[in-house]
Q: What sequence folds into this?
C-alpha cells in the first residue's frame, strides 16, 4: 500500500471508535467538535491546499445569500468551474494539490450543489405554506436557512470528510438533533459492515501484487497471447473492486458508529437522499432502524446483478443519487441514452480531466444501448429457460464490460487506455456495436415479415370481397 493509502486507512480506522464517543455529546458540542476535528484532518493532510475548499464554501454561501432562486444553477457552475481551476493550478505557477485535497474537493462539490438545492427547496416550500396556509408535503426539507457556521460545520464534518459517503445537509442536521443517540443501534450494524473488510483487503493486496497495473504499460505485456491480455483486465478490476469495497465499507462503519444516517425503516430511505416517507419518532414504540441513507456500496449486487445499468446503481450509491437528482433531470437531451451519456460525461469531469475517465464513462451508454436492443430483440422472444440462459450470458458480458472500462479508469492516459484496448482488439466496443447491428437486422426482418403478412392478408380480403 502507498503512504497515501495508509493515511486513508488510518483516518478510517480512527473515525470508527471516535463515532461512538460523539453519541455522548449535546447537539451544539457535537456540531463544533465534528467541525474542528474535520478541519484539523483537512489541514493536516491538505496543508495550504485547504484554502481551495474554504474558497468553495464561502463562494457557495455568497451565492445562496445573494439569490436563492438561482442558487442551484449558480452553485453547480461555481463549484464545477472551481474544480477546473483546482486541477489546472499548476498553469498559474501554483503548487499541485495533494490527493487528500482532491478527495476533500470532490466531496465538497457534491455537498455544496446539494445544499444550494435544499435551500432553494426550503424557500419554495415556505412560499407554498404561506399561500396555502398548510403544511409542506415535501419529505425531509429544511426547517430554516443555514448560517455560514452551519455550512462550515457541514462542509468540514469529520465523518467522511475525505472518504465519503456523500450525505445531504438535512441528514447532517438530523444527526445533530437526534433525541436519544445512545439508544440507536451501533455496534451490531457496525461490526456487520466491517466483517468482510479484512477479506476484501487481503484479496486486494494479493491480486494487486500478482497483477500489477504498471505491467500493462510495458512492452513485455504485448508479447503475451490474447487470452492473457484479456484476463489481465479481469484481475485488475477485481483488485479495484476489493480496494473500494474495503474502503467504502470502512467509511460506512464510521458513519454507523456516530449514528449518522440512522432512520427508522418506515422512513424508506434512499442512499444519499435519506427519508422518502414522512415519519414521527414515537418514544413509546419499538423502532427498527437502518443506515441505508449512508450506504455507498452493495457488494453482492455489484458483482451479481445482470445489467450494466443496474451495476451503476449499486456502485458509489450516494454519488449515483446525486447524479440522478441534480444532473440527469437537467440534461439537454430527451432520449435515455443521450441523457445517460450526458450524466456519464459530468461524472467523468467530476472525477478528473484524465482522458481515461471519459473513454470509460462514455462507453457505458453504448453498452446500455446494446443491452437494451438485445433485450427487446432477443430476450423478449425467448421462453423462461431461454431467458435464464440469456441472463447468464448477459451477466458474464456485463462483468467483462466493466473490466474493460475499468482499464481506462486506472490507466488514465488516452494513449495507455487505447493501447490496452487495441491489444484485445477493442473487444467490448466491437461486441456492443455488433449486437446493435444484429438487433437492427432482426427487427428489420421482422418488420419485413410482418409487412408481407399484412399485405397477403389484404390481398386475400380483397379477393374475398370480389368473390362475394
A:
Amino acid at each position: 500500500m502507498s503512504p497515501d493509502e495508509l493515511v486513508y486507512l488510518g483516518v478510517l480506522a480512527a473515525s470508527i471508535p471516535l463515532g461512538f464517543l460523539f453519541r455522548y455529546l449535546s447537539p451544539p458540542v457535537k456540531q463544533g467538535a465534528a467541525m474542528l476535528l474535520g478541519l484539523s484532518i483537512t489541514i493536516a493532510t491538505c496543508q495550504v491546499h485547504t484554502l481551495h475548499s474554504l474558497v468553495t464554501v464561502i463562494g457557495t454561501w455568497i451565492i445562496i445569500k445573494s439569490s436563492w432562486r438561482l442558487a442551484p444553477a449558480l452553485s453547480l457552475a461555481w463549484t464545477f468551474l472551481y474544480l477546473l481551476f483546482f486541477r489546472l493550478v499548476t498553469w498559474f505557477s501554483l503548487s499541485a494539490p495533494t490527493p487528500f485535497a482532491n478527495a476533500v474537493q470532490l466531496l465538497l462539490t457534491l455537498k455544496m450543489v446539494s445544499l444550494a438545492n435544499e435551500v432553494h427547496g426550503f424557500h419554495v416550500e415556505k412560499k407554498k405554506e404561506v399561500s396555502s396556509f398548510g403544511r409542506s408535503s415535501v419529505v425531509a426539507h429544511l426547517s430554516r436557512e443555514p448560517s455560514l457556521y452551519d455550512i462550515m460545520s457541514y462542509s468540514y464534518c469529520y465523518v467522511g470528510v475525505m472518504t465519503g459517503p456523500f450525505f445531504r445537509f438535512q441528514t447532517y442536521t438530523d444527526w445533530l438533533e437526534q433525541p436519544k443517540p445512545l439508544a440507536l443501534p451501533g455496534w451490531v450494524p457496525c461490526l456487520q459492515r466491517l466483517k468482510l473488510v479484512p477479506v476484501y483487503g487481503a484479496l486486494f493486496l494479493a491480486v494487486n501484487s500478482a497483477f500489477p497495473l504498471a505491467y500493462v504499460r510495458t512492452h513485455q505485456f504485448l508479447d503475451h497471447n490474447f487470452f492473457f491480455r484479456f484476463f489481465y483486465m479481469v484481475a485488475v478490476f477485481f483488485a479495484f473492486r476489493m480496494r473500494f469495497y474495503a474502503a467504502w465499507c470502512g467509511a460506512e462503519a464510521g458513519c454507523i458508529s456516530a449514528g449518522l444516517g440512522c432512520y427508522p425503516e418506515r422512513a424508506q430511505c434512499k442512499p444519499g437522499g435519506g427519508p422518502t416517507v414522512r415519519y414521527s419518532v414515537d418514544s413509546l414504540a419499538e423502532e427498527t432502524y437502518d443506515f441505508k441513507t449512508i450506504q455507498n456500496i452493495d457488494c453482492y449486487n455489484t458483482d451479481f446483478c445482470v445489467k450494466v445499468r443496474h451495476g451503476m446503481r449499486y456502485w458509489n450509491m450516494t454519488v449515483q443519487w446525486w447524479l440522478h437528482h441534480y444532473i440527469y433531470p437537467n440534461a439537454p437531451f430527451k432520449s435515455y441514452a443521450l441523457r445517460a451519456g450526458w450524466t456519464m460525461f459530468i461524472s467523468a469531469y467530476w472525477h478528473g480531466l484524465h482522458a481515461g475517465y471519459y473513454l470509460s464513462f462514455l462507453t457505458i451508454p453504448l453498452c446500455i444501448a446494446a443491452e437494451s436492443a438485445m433485450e427487446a430483440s432477443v430476450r423478449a422472444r425467448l421462453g423462461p429457460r431461454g431467458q435464464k440462459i440469456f441472463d447468464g450470458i448477459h451477466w458474464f458480458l456485463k462483468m467483462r464490460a466493466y473490466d474493460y472500462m475499468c482499464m481506462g479508469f486506472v490507466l488514465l492516459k488516452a494513449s495507455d487506455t487505447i493501447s490496452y484496448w487495441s491489444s484485445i482488439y477493442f473487444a467490448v466496443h466491437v461486441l456492443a456495436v455488433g449486437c446493435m447491428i444484429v438487433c437492427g437486422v432482426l427487427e428489420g426482418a421482422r418488420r419485413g415479415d410482418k409487412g408481407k403478412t399484412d399485405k397477403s392478408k389484404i390481398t386475400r380480403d380483397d379477393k374475398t370481397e370480389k368473390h362475394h
